[in-house]
Specification:
By secondary structure, this protein is of the alpha+beta class. It contains eleven helices and seven strands. One of its GO terms (molecular function) is sucrose synthase activity.
């Protein structure tokens, strides 16, 4: 079963109809220990405890529920709900919340799922409308998508290689970008004196030499003015 954008929303309700009794017992087992984050191995282990009949368990795993569980990376448990984070293909995440009482299913956005996860550790933060949310979706527009399972966990190297190649072709683009970063008229990264890639490179080399001679516990305030770019 390949998990596409629509298969998760369609597959779980269908699985509910096929295995309603087994699913309800599994969900009740998942919420038994209260709020927590469960990984795939924990979901599978507790399912085996609940469905101890090998034949029934095989039927569940061969059905839609089993196929969905195979793609689940983790689940957030906040009784009576269990929210599943499902990665059908590399870089393609879907989220769904299932109510253990009535088996109702609700698709979640990534923001909604993360709020549930944050709720486990800090309810005030999770409910704060002004909490910081950083959206890295802008990177999707210019960077190729990871498409191989072997690429999972190597995202940083992938992005670094792509960005590194582009910077080698046009290093001035990085300088222009850093110069453009400002807040209320104040430069955030560096000032106009470093307006070329060569000047920036030389300044970074000098800064590296200077910092290498300082004790590692030297407070930033002690050399802040020396590094004022």
């Amino acid at each position: 079963m390949e998990m596409t954008s629509g298969s998760l929303g369609n597959g779980i309700p269908e699985a509910m109809g096929q295995n309603r009794g087994n699913i309800k017992r599994c969900l009740e087992k998942y919420i038994e220990n209260g709020r927590r984050v469960m990984k795939l191995n924990e979901l599978m282990d507790e399912m085996e405890i609940v469905i101890n009949d090998v034949t029934q368990r095989r039927r569940v795993m061969e059905g839609d529920l089993g196929k969905i569980l195979c793609f689940t990376q983790e689940a957030v448990v906040i009784p009576p709900n269990v929210a599943f984070a499902v990665r059908g293909t590399p870089g393609n995440w879907q989220y769904v919340k299932v109510n253990s009482s009535n088996l109702s299913v609700e698709a979640l956005s990534s923001t909604q799922y993360l709020k549930l996860k944050e709720f486990l550790f800090d309810e005030n933060w999770a409910n704060d409308e002004n909490a910081l949310e950083v959206d890295f979706g802008a990177l999707d527009f210019t960077l190729p998508w990871l498409s191989l399972s072997s690429s999972i966990g190597n995202g940083l190297s992938f992005v670094s290689s792509k960005l590194g190649g582009r910077l080698n072709d046009n290093p001035q683009s990085l300088v222009d970008y850093l110069l453009s970063l400002e807040h209320q008229g104040e430069k955030l990264m560096m000032n106009e004196t470093l307006n070329t890639a060569r000047k920036l490179e030389m300044s970074l080399i000098l800064a590296d030499v200077f910092l290498s001679e300082l004790p590692k516990d030297t407070p930033f305030q002690a050399f802040e003015l020396r590094l004022n770019l």
